[in-house]
Amino acid sequence: MTEQAERIKNLPPYLFARIDEKIAAARAKGTDVISLGIGDPDLPTPKNIVDKMAAEVYNPAHHQYPSYAGMLSFRQAVAEWHRRRGGVELDPQTEVLTLIGSKEGIAHISLCYINPGDIALVPDPGYPVYEIGCMLAGGQAYKMPLRAENEFLPVFEDIPADVVKRAKLLFLNYPNNPTSATADEAFYRKAIDFARENDIIICHDGAYSEIGFDGYKPLGFLEVPGAKEAGIEFNSLSKAYNMTGWRIAWAAGRRDVIGALGTVKSNLDSGAFQAVQAAGIEALLGPQDIIPQMCDVYQERRDIIIDTLNSMGWRMKKTKAAVYVWAPVPKGFTSESFAEFVLEKAGVVVTPGNGYGAAGEGYVRMTLTIGTQRLREALRRMRDTLGSVTF
Ligand SMILES: *Cc1c(COP(=O)(O)O)cnc(C)c1O
Fold this sequence. Notes:
The chain has helices at 6-9, 17-28, 47-56, 72-86, 102-113, 129-136, 161-166, 185-197, 227-230, 237-240, 255-268, 274-285, 290-312, 335-346, 372-386, and strands spanning 34-35, 96-99, 119-124, 140-145, 167-173, 201-205, 231-236, 249-253, 324-328, 348-349, 351-352, 363-367. By secondary structure, it is of the alpha/beta class. It has two domains: 6-44 and 290-386, Aspartate Aminotransferase, domain 1; 47-285, Aspartate Aminotransferase, domain 2. Strand 6, helix 9 (227-230) and strand 7 (231-236) form a beta-alpha-beta unit. The protein starts with 5 loop residues before the first helix and ends in a 5-residue tail after the last helix. The structure holds pyridoxal-5'-phosphate. Residues 39, 101-103, 127, 173, 177, 205, 207, 236, 238-239, 244, 249 line the site of pyridoxal-5'-phosphate.
């Protein structure tokens, strides 16, 4: 067999492989497996957006190559959305770039700044693409542990000086996947100061910016003074408008960084289907009542999970945002052994936290993206098999 390139061979091992095998085995045995492992909205894309897409598909102008930076009208819609949301001023021509999903932009930003030997600072636990994008560019990721005692925020003072010196990018993600932690203005100001002092570009991932509970509205990174000079934000229609399959997102913020990302993209892809961008404009500027409705659905599910687990001996605070419950595992379990136990005894899939990084050991992730009835059934089974637990 032809040998693969080092950059592929050096990718971190896929830590969910073992649990994936066990899920397949349980299903093969006929177990009615309920998965709380999938981070993909189960609610449909709102009808006004689907209708817009259906109409736009017929426009022959959309059947040709789009512009690599995205339609100006989409980028203007993004700028208007940021203005309405938090008073952020963006130049749609130079400070906004259309992406084919934010995963694409997150993976490509490392190609813009990371030389072999350079470092990207990434959260641990975290969305794997930050580290992998950096590795594919030939760089190294330095894992910043997110710990409960620090509200799952990284502590910049703990990063060794020689690492800081080699760091070019700082990835942040709030509301956070997998912990559902949120960040306030004081934290973002600290991050901006740290980045400025050390000439590091902040890449904030705002995928869950619209999902907040109990009246809480997550602060947008670009809404913080100085953010636009310190870096960029990736945001996406995937989670806010239930559009994961459509592949439409954007990056916005610091002009030279947006320009660099545009240069890489113009050489690698040819932009997002314009009909999808037109549907994206409808999502961003059309009726927004879908967002509070969606948050209400997730909030009810959050309550089902956390109230049930707390009745069994957990002592978790209610999460304020995002679609995850990041639960510590009971005494005597590791992330993996707990996930295996719950799968084997209750037929319920929870994701072992160490799959998101070594600092995720001792936790499992459960998602709110499953119908309420199935969720109740999953929690009932967990209570029946586990009873009460200690930590
Ligand atoms: C879901 C998710 C995204 C969004 O990815 P898209 O490519 O825009 O669908 C980005 N970051 C995190 C942390 C996510 O969980």
